[in-house]
Write a structure and sequence with these properties.
The chain is mainly alpha-helical. The chain contains 20 helices and five strands. The strands form two sheets. The protein has a three-stranded antiparallel β-sheet with strand order 4-3-5. It has a two-stranded antiparallel sheet with strand order 1-2.
């Protein structure tokens, strides 16, 4: 039987083959492999220069068609397909306010602003923030989300929610966080519950966090759910900070290498060009290469920034194509060393999120639907969609995960034990902890290797430049003597 479901964003729809009940792990792996191969033809078509405009036209057409079909599928599954709007409005006190909000339509967005007592001056649909490395739309801000959940979990058993929000909105500190709390308080005063109020601030709260809070409200254990959610978000924020710290040093060294090359070619090399051109014997190879670079920069210098900018823009445009991104995301997970690290990082977020959702009382099919928004890797998003569909048809979770070529095999025993003993949430958390430990160990090794490697690279560039100048000077001195 064929079943269709929306992808993690509203840009496309995947068609997934739902296997018969007697499916084997080998057959499922073969089906996944067919899905992977089916993406190779569009990639090859896209890179063909003679079909670039054809692909672009087809892409525009399918974007419109799939957008409509995705909205229908969202309605069938009981989900809301929200759009983001930018607004400029004036408050009841006459203060001008700018911001963004999520709503189903332009009419609903205007109604939300009017309910908040604002006079709408400008309201436009946002096209979204474009980034070089796309991230899931539900990424949120774990720093603010963790702080908000932690503060509520500590005080919710002692004080009413309205009083807590009023007190938090009057605290000194981060203005952005304070405005977010004030907005949530306004939504609750309008009669909405906590999860609905948080849903109006998707730039702070991922979709899975909102649904976990909703499940906590329905189960009557909101305080405990918020505490577990705060632990999870704090750990996720710490992991993100470690990753940024690990990447900062190599990036700075790389920038230093580029600046050093530009400085030497533009300012130092011209002082030796005339001297070397009058040199009677053949120049060393490093010197000839350096002089060729200098002549190219002198003749075509004005075109270098233009060509670089156009090449960069074209590269970014290619990366934004969904088919290309899927292809790249799949092979990133298969690269030796780096692929294992990316697998551990992605599965750490997926499994820990799934554990928190199940602990909050959410059904596993709903939890899997929500967890599809977590990974930034498009291949994993598609696989999680297949996982959700298969589990809803009664297949064991461990069998479907075992068919995934990028799932760590060591974790299958933990998940199988969790399903057999009824402690799936606990085993998912242990599996996530294992992935986190493995990812941290790799990050530490990568950082330890990156520092001396980048220093050697910088030293090699400077040494090569110095030798290309010093060697002919030494030969000239020998001839003079």
């Amino acid at each position: 039987m064929w079943s269709e479901f929306p992808s993690s964003s509203t840009k496309g729809t995947f068609f997934v083959s739902i296997p018969a009940p007697e499916i084997t792990s080998k057959e499922l792996k073969l089906q996944i492999k067919r899905n992977e191969i089916s993406f190779l033809f569009p990639v090859a078509l896209f890179f063909s220069p003679s079909t670039t405009f054809f692909c672009k036209g087809i892409g525009v057409y399918y974007k419109k068609v799939l957008s409509v079909r995705t909205n229908v599928l969202f309605q069938k599954k009981g989900l809301v397909n929200l759009e983001r709007f930018k607004y400029v409005a004036r408050t009841a006190t006459g203060e001008l306010q700018e911001g963004t909000l999520d709503a189903e339509s332009l009419r609903e967005a205007a109604g939300i602003l009017r309910e908040q007592g604002m006079f709408v001056i400008k309201l436009l649909q946002s096209k979204g923030d474009r980034t070089f490395f796309p991230v899931p739309q539900s990424a949120g801000n774990p720093k603010y989300a963790a702080l908000f959940c932690r503060q509520l979990s500590v005080m919710l058993d002692e004080q009413p929610l309205n009083e807590i929000l009023d007190m938090l909105s009057k605290q000194k500190g981060d203005r952005k966080y304070r405005e977010m709390v004030q907005g949530i308080r306004q939504q609750i005063e309008m009669g909405k519950n906590l999860s609905e109020a948080m849903g109006k601030f998707r730039e702070f709260f991922p979709a899975n966090v909102i649904h976990i809070v909703e499940a906590g409200q329905e189960s009557g254990s909101l305080s405990n759910v918020l505490e577990r959610l705060a632990d999870f978000l704090e750990k996720e924020y710490a992991a993100r900070q470690k990753l940024e710290s690990a990447m900062l040093y190599p990036i700075l060294i790389g920038i230093a290498v580029i600046c050093a090359i530009c400085f030497m070619v533009v300012f130092i090399l011209p002082t030796f060009v005339v001297l070397f051109e009058n040199f009677q014997t053949e120049l060393p190879l490093p010197t000839r290469i350096l002089l060729a670079l200098g002549r190219f920069a002198e003749v075509h210098g004005m075109w270098i920034p233009v060509i670089t900018a156009l090449a960069f823009a074209g590269f970014v445009w290619i990366l934004r194509q969904e088919t290309v991104r899927y292809f790249i995301d799949y092979w990133i997970l298969r690269i030796p060393f780096i692929g294992s690290w990316r697998q551990d990082t992605e599965w750490m977020h997926i499994l820990s999120t799934l554990a928190v959702e199940l602990e909050s009382g959410m059904r596993i099919d709903v939890a899997l639907r929500m967890v599809r928004e977590v990974p930034s890797n498009r291949y994993l998003r598609q696989f999680l969609g297949e996982l959700e569909e298969s589990v809803s048809h009664g297949y064991p979770l461990v069998h479907i995960l075992g068919a995934c070529p990028v799932f760590p095999p060591m974790l299958l025993e933990l998940i199988a034990a969790g399903e057999n003993t009824g402690r799936l949430e606990e085993m998912l958390r242990k599996a996530a902890d294992y992935c986190e430990l493995s990812s941290e160990n790799f990050s530490q090794r990568l950082q330890a290797m990156a520092e001396p490697s980048m220093l050697l690279l910088l030293g090699g560039v400077v040494m090569g430049f110095v030798l290309s100048i010093v060697l002919p000077l030494m030969e000239m001195m020998d001839q003079a003597m």
